[in-house]
Every structure is written in C-alpha cells, then in structure tokens.
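User: Could you walk me through two proteins back to back? I'd like the raw sequence and the structure tokens for each, with a short line separating them so I can tell where one ends and the next begins.

Assistant: Of course. Protein one, sequence then structure:
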Amino acid sequence: MLSALSPFTQLQWVPTPRNAVVHQALNDCLADAITPTPAASPTPAPVGHGRRYAARDEAVEYLVLAGSTLVLKHADERGPLAVTDDREALVGAALRGAMDAESAGTAEHADALRGYVEAMRAHHNQPEGFWVAAADPAAAYASLTGSVPRADLTGVPLLSDGASRLVDRFELTDRAEALRLIREQGPTALIRDVRAAELSDTEGWRWPRGKTHDDTAVVRVTP
C-alpha cells in the first residue's frame, strides 16, 4: 500500500511474491491506520486526504478519499480515467458565497472563511455530506474503491486537490496535458504551474478560494 508522502515522490511497481499472504482490503488498511491503539495517544494524528494504491501481479486496487484524484492511464485508446472524491467541493459550493465575495487576505475574508469552516463541520463525515479520514475509521468505508487489471495500465498518477486544481478549479489545462507534463518534466513541473497560477491571483478574484496556496502532492506510479 502506497500513499503520497512527498510532492516529488516517484514510485516503481514491485511484484508481490507468489507465496505471499493475501493482502488486507484497502478500506481495512486505512481504518486500521486511523484507529488508535491502547498504547497510542488518545488523539491520533489526522490522516486527512486518502490516496491509496496496491499492486499485485494481476490487478491494481485503489482507494480515493477527500478531494484526492487518482488517474488510471490505460494502455489502449480509452485514455486516462480520473477517479476523484469531490463530495467536499460539492457540499462547499453551496456554502462559500460570502467567502468568495471578499478579497483574500482581508479581515472580511478571514471572517467569512471562519463561517464557512463552521458551516462545513455540520456535513463532516456524514452520509449526505463528505468524508475525511481524520480520527474516524468509518471514513475508510465511505471511500471510493475499485480494481483494474494491471496489464491495462501504463501508469497511475495520484494528486492531492491542491495539485489537481490546475485542471479542475483553475481550468488552465486539461487532464491529458497535465499528465504529459508530469511524464515529461516530473511532478515538480505541475506544482510549479500551480504555484504560478496562485501567485497570479493572490486576492482570489479570478479563482475564489479559501486560501491563496493549497498543499500540493503528486505521486507517479509506473508499472
């Protein structure tokens, strides 16, 4: 099981030994990671966004949670397929009007942001809301999961919402071009373009948002 630990991580698929014990389901792995043990601190470290990937000889299994995007790059003419958990964005779209009306960095925007965050709490880890791993193991079972034959894929890029915003929020490029950039120049090139776009609109008038800069993580997994 692999997760995005660095904005610049690139990983290589390693085959599972033939005699290996059948692995635990990804939902269970994430739930176990969230659940505190008796010897652990009563407040476990938050896991937050989830991007999990497991490769066996025959299949690639994935788990996506909380704004993350996983792209399945098919070897045939189907092209890339993005798997995105956008439930938080969908809930937030109806609640962010007051925040988006203010210029980022102002006291008015800060006040509106606090109101937005408070309003979002009512939808946090709720069936009709959105799910974040944090300290609730139940979130693992509300994640998006699937399995794809490994032979069908040429790569599996994983992106945080801060990295994918170049495509899905700023709309400065499309998915195929973003993947080409990662493939040819590496994850740092995509993050560079995200930061340039953010700096071109620090007040958030072109792209209203809660904060000027979001965390960015890109993992490139290749067979």
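----
Protein two, same layout:
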Amino acid sequence: MKAPAICTTLLLGISVMASASAQAELQAVQPPPETTVTVRSAGTGYTPSGPAPAFADLDRNGDASLSKDEASSYKLLANDFLKADSDEDGEISKSEYERWAAQP
C-alpha cells in the first residue's frame, strides 16, 4: 500500500515543479511592463507624394492586369504585390488594384 502512495506523492511533486519551471520561463521571456519595445519594419524607402497612379498608367501592355514587372514601377505596389493579388493568380486585376489602393 505504501508504494502507490509514494508514487502519487512523487508524481504530484514532479507536476508542481514542472508547473513552476514553466511559469519561470514565461516570466523570463516577457519584458517588464515599464520596458519600451521598438519594432522596426523594412519599408520601401519611398514616401508617396500623392494618390496612387491610375491602373491604366501601370498596365503598360494593356492586358487589363498588372504583372510583377509592371507593378515594380510603383514601389508601394511592388512591396505589397502578394497582398494586392488577393486571388493569388500572379497578377493584379483592376478590381484588386482598386481595393488595394483604397486601403489606408
């Protein structure tokens, strides 16, 4: 009878130690509330000075869609190409472009 009681006690002790260890690790990862965290992202290095260009101005070959090459002439669109290409067909349609350009 003593063996099961000892095993239960050992398992309970191990469980408590593991829980305390996990909490200590979480506390080590989280910065204190007074810490300032700075997040930097890679931008395009380009600040627009007006509205996005007209779709027709970017669609150099007139096929009613923008390839990656055509999008590269507008750095903001080139940077967001995958986001703007919402149907993931490798091209940006006029409606996809207008939806992308309307986003803040």
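The chain has a mean pLDDT of 80.

Let me know if you want the two compared in more detail.
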